[in-house]
């Protein structure tokens, strides 16, 4: 956008902001007494403040251009003298003030609720709250609470920006097709069936080693998994697990098992089936004969092709003339050659993956990939495939320069791609692959819907529970830092983006969570509790539901063990239960999130998810021994005498003095719902 407010807002929240927010929510047991003593004493009680863009605090989380947005602020009763909304409007490049007024008390009588309304318009806005008690002032924005006015980390209002509700409310299951299930042995790749890049294909038996018999040829190892296998196991995915979104790693024609080096975007790889079978699979996913209605997301590898693609044709596999064969090729301009033919731009310098040159708007490459009605992106979104979204591989590199996302051309491409996708299906999802703060692609509402949440979920969860980062390196954080990390990374995104971020414990690009957990299935249990109750779309990388082992690529792509892929397996059964709980409570999907407790000594973390219908407290124990956790549920406006039901065990608890105490096993959790 280029204006001052936009630039300031998109800078990453400072550590000071994140820590201030975190500190404002710790040491809670003493706060209830403070609440009763709150008064106009020139001191804003930070521990009573709360606002987010859940439906209790934001009247229109995804407003249209004609809808005003009424915001609600919670404070301790009688604590403040005034409050204001200060918002930056991108239309005029200036800040505006809206006075808030007292409206009500909460059910417990502990809190006051203040409201103010930001008027309707089509322009993007950022806001922060100013809270005053006489001469004292506190500022509140997405990054946290501060005593001086912040310069970054504001909340967003983006009229007209909607992320798919099915993604907000769903659970995704990621499948590496060759390794999931062999549903049709007749299409299996056999030993020596073909040779590519000096590697002859190897057919390995299911459950055997993923490492090639010939050094350096791991991409030539095939096990026989296919689309027929996915189709035959939809009952497991939809019913046993309860997932309703299936994300497939690449399925188009390619000489390797991973298929990130596309040979033909128009053709499903024969080892996986056919285009007709893809149509059948999509219809079966969308249907209800094998479980609830589902959704299909395909992997779009659009940064580069394979060197065997017709457009490039390094090995003369096509009867047409590719860019590698002749500078007169109709596709010569699709690639960037430094010295034709052997020196060209490639994905991370990997010569088998020549990089596409998207050129200027309206270029042939842009039209072929997404811009025309017959483009790759649009073709699969339409009948007879009707897929529901694209996961964009290496998405920040889709430009000529590939400057790690800093190239403005990349953002132009992504805005055009979004228009193309939404013109076919306004409810389709655009999921970008990005490993850091994906804000530049999501915060304007004109590019991606969300991203793979390596930075805001996979990495902190791994470090907190396993003591390793997602690559298996030693890295351990205490509960308070875990909470700070989560808070800071949530602040990077509009709320409706947070709700569709893909939250996985692992992926095809990192070590398996089960490996990082040292094979301790209880750590998988704990991770599942968090995954299914946190903000975002839970994404299960096939096998993570039972703690599949596996080191770095290719070991993270082992075959699925169907002897444990059943509800008789304790981890699978817990996954099923947790998914069912998530599906039963909208508060766990689109409700507010509030930290209730962190305890570094005992390795505890508790938080609330709540909306107008339900108030849910989640307690997690990251220690190896059981602990009794006293949860301050008054922070969720749960009244004394209320009954909370622990949803795994069914045990009921009565709220006394604003609290409930629950004993939680080591590396386990409790979910208490009102």
From TrEMBL:
Any single biological process term in GO: carbohydrate metabolic process
The UniProt keyword set, sorted, is: Glycosidase, Hydrolase, Signal
Q: Which domain of life is it from?
A: Bacteria
Annotated Glycosyl hydrolase family 13 catalytic domain residues: 174-582
Q: Where is the signal peptide?
A: 1-32
Pfam families, from UniProt? Answer: Alpha-amylase, Alpha-amylase_N
Q: Which GO terms describe its molecular function?
A: hydrolase activity, hydrolyzing O-glycosyl compounds
* PANTHER family membership: ALPHA-AMYLASE FAMILY MEMBER, MALTODEXTRIN GLUCOSIDASE
Quote the protein name from its UniProt record. Glycoside hydrolase family 13 protein
């Amino acid at each position: 956008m280029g204006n001052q407010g936009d630039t300031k807002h998109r800078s990453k929240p400072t550590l000071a902001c994140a820590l201030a927010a975190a500190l404002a929510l710790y040491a809670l047991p003493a706060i209830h007494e403070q609440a009763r003593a709150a008064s106009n004493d020139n001191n804003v009680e930070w521990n009573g403040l709360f606002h987010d863009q859940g439906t209790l605090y934001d009247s229109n989380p995804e407003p249209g251009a004609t809808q005003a947005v009424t915001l609600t602020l919670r404070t301790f009763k009688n604590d403040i003298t005034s409050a204001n909304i200060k918002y930056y409007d991108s239309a005029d490049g200036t800040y505006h003030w809206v006075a808030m007024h007292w409206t009500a008390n909460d059910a417990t009588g502990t809190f006051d609720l203040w409201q103010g309304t930001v008027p309707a318009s089509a322009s993007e806005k950022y806001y922060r709250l100013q809270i005053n008690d006489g001469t004292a002032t506190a500022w509140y924005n997405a990054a946290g609470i501060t005593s001086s006015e912040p310069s970054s980390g504001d909340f967003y209002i983006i009229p007209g920006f909607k992320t798919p509700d099915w993604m907000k409310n769903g659970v995704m299951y990621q499948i590496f097709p060759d390794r999931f299930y062999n549903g049709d042995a007749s299409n299996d790749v056999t030993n020596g069936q073909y040779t590519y890049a000096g590697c002859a294909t190897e057919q390995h038996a299911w459950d055997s080693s993923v490492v090639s018999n010939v050094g350096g040829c791991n991409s030539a190892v095939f096990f026989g998994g296919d689309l027929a296998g996915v189709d035959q196991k939809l009952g497991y995915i939809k019913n046993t697990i309860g997932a309703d979104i299936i994300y497939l790693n690449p399925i188009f024609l390619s000489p390797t098992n991973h298929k990130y080096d596309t040979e033909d975007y128009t053709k499903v790889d024969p080892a996986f089936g056919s285009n007709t079978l893809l149509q059948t699979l999509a219809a079966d996913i969308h249907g209800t004969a094998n479980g609830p209605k589902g959704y299909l997301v395909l992997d779009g590898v659009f940064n580069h092709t394979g060197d065997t693609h017709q457009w490039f044709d390094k090995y003369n596999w096509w009867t047409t003339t590719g860019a590698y064969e002749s500078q007169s090729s109709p596709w010569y301009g699709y690639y960037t050659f430094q010295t034709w033919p052997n020196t060209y731009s490639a994905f991370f310098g990997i010569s088998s993956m020549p990089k596409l040159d998207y050129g200027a708007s309206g270029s042939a490459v842009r039209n072929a990939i997404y811009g025309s009605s017959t483009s790759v992106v649009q073709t699969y979104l339409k009948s007879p495939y009707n897929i529901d979204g694209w996961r964009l591989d290496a998405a920040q590199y889709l430009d000529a320069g590939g400057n790690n996302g800093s190239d403005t051309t990349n953002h132009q491409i992504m805005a055009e791609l979004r228009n193309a996708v939404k013109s076919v299906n306004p409810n389709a999802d655009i999921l970008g692959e990005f490993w850091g703060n994906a804000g530049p692609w999501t915060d304007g509402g004109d590019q991606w819907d969300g991203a793979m949440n390596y930075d805001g979920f996979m990495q902190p969860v791994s470090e907190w529970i396993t003591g390793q980062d997602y690559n298996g390196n030693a890295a351990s954080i205490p509960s308070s830092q875990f909470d700070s990390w989560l808070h800071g990374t949530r602040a990077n995104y509009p709320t409706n983006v947070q709700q569709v971020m893909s939250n996985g414990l692992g992926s095809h690009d990192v070590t398996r969570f089960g490996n990082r957990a040292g094979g301790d299935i209880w750590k998988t249990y704990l991770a599942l509790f968090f995954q299914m109750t946190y903000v975002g779309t839970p994404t299960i990388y096939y096998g993570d539901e039972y703690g599949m082992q596996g080191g770095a690529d290719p070991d993270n792509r082992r075959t699925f063990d169907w002897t444990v892929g059943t509800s008789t397996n304790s981890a699978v059964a817990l996954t099923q239960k947790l998914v069912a709980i998530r599906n039963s409570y909208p508060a766990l999907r689109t409700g507010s999130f509030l930290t209730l407790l962190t305890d570094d000594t005992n390795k505890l973390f508790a938080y609330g998810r709540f909306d107008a219908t339900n108030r849910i407290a989640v307690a997690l124990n990251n220690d190896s021994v059981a602990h009794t956790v006293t949860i301050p549920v008054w922070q969720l406006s749960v009244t004394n005498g209320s009954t909370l039901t622990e949803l795994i065990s069914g045990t009921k608890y009565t709220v006394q003095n604003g609290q409930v105490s629950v004993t939680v096993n080591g590396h386990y959790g409790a979910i208490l719902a009102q």
